[in-house]
Design goal:
The complex is a heterodimer of chains A (about 325) and B (about 425). Chain A is mainly alpha-helical and about 325 residues long. Chain A has 15 helices and two strands. Chain A is globular, with a radius of gyration of 25 Å. In chain B, helix 10 packs across helix 19. Chain B is globular. Classes of the chains: A mainly alpha (about 325), B alpha/beta (about 425). Chains A and B meet through helix 2 and helix 14 of A and helix 1, helix 3, helix 11 and helix 19 of B.
Chain lengths: ~325, ~425
């Protein structure tokens, strides 16, 4: 033990007595500055997390003591058809929505990286939707996607396509939500744009001298060079999509949660419904922990798989 | 040493100040009562109403309205619930009571000398669980048939005569529907689930409900429920559910606007509540609208079911955590007094729950509103049956309704499955 401690560069526990007075003061000031965050973290993050873990093994009564049920909530989840439906709805969004959004934002970023007149104006235009508040943008899209009076189906009508019932057909509600998400992908575009500007010019020029065309330069130089950015966007996108809530909550309009036909009953929406509408806090806590584990596994999997596809220039 | 104490002191001070801040500065004064009203569209008017209580008693009342549904539960479980809470419906009261979140009101009714005979029985029923009273209705809602007279006239129907039977309503609806050459719908005669589900009313018209009358058995797959869904389904299947859905998409969200299909000539008949006839809806958004209101018609072979209606509406509860139960009871009694009920619901055009208040000329002077007042006194006016699983069951029933109406599914197997799933849940919840 003693050996271990002396081998460490950073002393822990801090040996206050051996410190100079100046160091001691610095340490305390540092701790003091950390205090507000620490209290916030302990009281509003760690404690609720641990409490929800405990609740997940019980039936939660707000005024009476917890009723222990062991793994019952978890076992019930496996038998709950709505749980599986909400999970599959969410996986649909993760598997289709996230890659589509990444692809589209990458190409937007490539276009916005071209040296053309008025480029900063285009960048602003593409970024603007992402600063529109979620509820406002979702309500806006309810109008855009209205099958008979909305602008999207009207435009589709001009080219001879009869647009679908975006909001009331269960097969089209999720694609509608993905479109809404892609409209607001400005944040992802900006991150890609910063990555694109870090792609070394000399590599692109060397490729050009070797006779590589635009597509080959993009595929063989740019894409590998921004692969860490792709990984970051992918992981944050996946985590965000697993927790997809606000848009779905607003998108149903005044219909019940999940409308149409539970096609927009996403994992977080069903969790919310159980916890805050049906008062099943224990069940909802179990759902939250299952989601945590799913997200953890997905993230680890992505990190593992990405080792083969990600190139870190440094 | 000196330093050490100073740091300790500052740290403690910081922690203490944060804790104090999070507690909201200690106990509220008992002389202020807090009333939360979930559906208070008009907070200023409500505050002025409760200011009268202050004028009478010197006790200040703070009104919070409207309240988002997801704020209700945290407020009831928290340490500072409102002293009186007015919920948008009785659906959850029994669940709340089971969880120990709301008071049983017998003692409050005695303390406040509240006359239970003054309530319309149909409105009070939703608050009763056995011999316990868990809430008191404060204004209520009922539904009836609305029809657009201009559209009737254009279709060659008598604008003053609504359909007399459910069968006739189907005929009228067909005459009032215009389909374009490409199958899309120009206007529709009747939409059974406009704005939200009205299956409760239709099931009553077919002579049953999805609970037994005492709320102890689930009868979700009984014939009246099947009939009600099948009857509604025809309005979709006849013109193609996709075409009807394309037309009606977004209609529910236009409810409080001049674009509402009933005003724009897109929808000729539908079911809606008494508030529509008041100052805040049709006369605000489309004052020139020419429309009629009548009780929803019964099936042709059951004329005795005329004037059937489902009563549901706002209820007041006293949260279990309310600090001064006596003060809450007194305020509740004041809210239930006929004069206050008359004033509040006259202003907002909702049905008064007090019989004495209903005599106020303001409720009878508007002939359209009077249709509802008369309906309230009908022996066929039934309360909406609520149980501790109401909310979850309604969600599941809503899904079945959507499948039947919007996808043409056969109601029987869906309702059988629902019955099998929820009957044990009901029995478990009633234990």
């Amino acid at each position: 033990m003693e050996e271990l401690r002396t081998n460490r560069k950073w002393p822990w526990p801090p040996k206050l007595l051996k410190w100079k007075p100046r160091q001691r003061v610095n340490f305390r000031v540092g701790m003091l500055f950390l205090l507000p965050w620490t209290i916030g973290f302990l009281a509003f993050t760690l404690y609720p997390m641990m409490a929800s873990f405990v609740y997940s093994f019980s039936i939660y009564h707000s005024k009476q003591p917890l009723e222990w049920v062991g793994l019952q909530n978890y076992a019930d989840l496996l038998k709950d058809s709505l749980f599986w439906q909400s999970l599959s709805n969410t996986l649909y969004m993760v598997a289709i929505g996230v890659p589509l959004t990444l692809l589209a934002s990458f190409f937007c970023a490539v276009l916005l990286n071209l040296k053309v007149r008025g480029q900063s104006i285009y960048r602003v235009i593409y970024f603007l939707p992402s600063i529109v508040p979620t509820v406002a943008s979702t309500i806006l899209w309810l109008w855009i996607l209205n099958p008979q009076t909305g602008i999207l189906n009207t435009l589709l009508g001009y080219i001879g396509i009869q647009g679908p019932n975006w909001m009331s057909n269960p097969a089209w509600s999720k694609p509608g939500l993905i479109l809404l998400g892609m409209w607001g992908m400005g944040g992802t575009i900006v991150i890609y744009l910063s990555g694109l500007q870090d792609v070394p010019i000399h590599l692109l020029e060397a490729a050009e001298l070797d006779g590589a065309n635009w597509w080959q330069r993009l595929w063989h130089v740019t894409v590998p060079m921004v692969s860490p950015i792709t990984l970051f966007n992918l992981i944050t996108g996946v985590i965000w999509m697993f927790q997809y809530f606000a848009q779905a909550y607003v998108f149903r309009g005044s219909h019940s949660l999940g409308y149409p036909l539970n096609s927009t009953l996403f994992y977080s929406v069903y969790l919310y419904q159980n916890a805050f509408l049906w008062l099943k806090m224990g069940y909802a806590s179990a759902m939250a922990w299952v989601l945590f584990i799913i997200i953890l596994i997905c993230t680890l999997l992505l990190l593992k798989v990405s080792e083969r596809f990600t190139y870190y220039a440094g | 040493m000196k330093h050490k104490n100073l740091w300790l002191f500052i740290s403690l001070l910081l922690i203490a100040s944060m804790l104090l801040a999070s507690c909201g500065g200690g106990k509220p004064k008992t002389s202020v009562l807090r009333v939360w009203i979930q559906w208070g569209d008009n907070p200023q008017q409500l505050q002025e109403l409760f200011d009268k209580y202050t004028a009478e008693t010197g006790i200040k009342v703070e009104v919070t309205a409207p309240v988002e549904p997801d704020k209700i539960l945290p407020s009831l479980t928290g340490s500072e619930p409102p002293d009186v809470l007015v919920l948008s419906g009785g659906d959850l009261v029994k669940s709340y009571y089971k969880e120990g979140l709301v008071e049983e009101l017998t003692s409050a009714i005695q303390a406040g000398d509240i006359d239970l005979n003054d309530f319309f029985p149909a409105s009070l029923d939703q608050c009763q669980m056995g011999d316990k009273i868990l809430c008191l209705p404060w204004g209520t809602d009922m539904y009836a048939l609305f029809w657009n007279k201009d559209m009737f006239e254009a279709a060659g129907l008598d604008p003053e005569t609504p359909p007399a039977t459910m069968e006739e309503l189907v005929e009228f609806a067909d005459k009032l529907t215009k389909v374009n050459a490409d199958g899309t719908i120009e206007q529709i005669g009747f939409l059974p689930d406009q704005a939200w589900s009205h299956s409760d009313l239709y099931v009553r018209m077919f002579g049953g409900f999805w609970y037994s009358e005492d709320g102890t058995q689930l009868t979700a797959n009984s014939q009246p429920v099947i009939d009600a869904l099948t009857w509604q389904q025809q309005f979709y299947t006849k013109y193609g559910a996709d075409n009807v859905l394309a037309l009606s998409s977004g209609w529910a969200d236009a409810y409080m606007s001049a674009d509402y299909p009933f005003y724009t000539g897109k929808l000729a008949m539908y079911v809606d509540g008494e508030w529509m006839t008041g100052p805040n809806f049709i006369s605000a958004f489309k004052p020139e609208a020419s429309y009629g209101v009548a009780p929803f018609p019964p099936p042709a072979d059951h004329p005795e079911r005329a004037n059937t209606a489902v009563v549901q509406g706002t209820v007041a509860v006293i949260p279990a955590g309310a600090k001064d139960k006596d003060a809450s009871a007194k305020l509740l009694a004041w809210m239930m007094s006929p004069a206050i009920v008359a004033e509040e619901f006259c202003f907002n055009a909702n049905l008064p729950t007090s019989k004495k208040a209903a005599e106020d000329p303001c409720f009878t002077s508007n002939p359209k509103f009077k249709e509802f007042v008369d309906l309230m006194a009908s022996p066929n006016a039934k309360y909406i049956i609520t149980t501790p699983i109401s909310l979850e069951l309604n969600e599941a029933l809503g899904l079945v309704e959507e499948q039947v109406l919007h996808t043409g599914a056969d109601p029987k197997p869906l309702l059988d499955a629902l019955q099998a799933e929820f009957e044990p849940k009901l029995q478990e919840a009633l234990k």
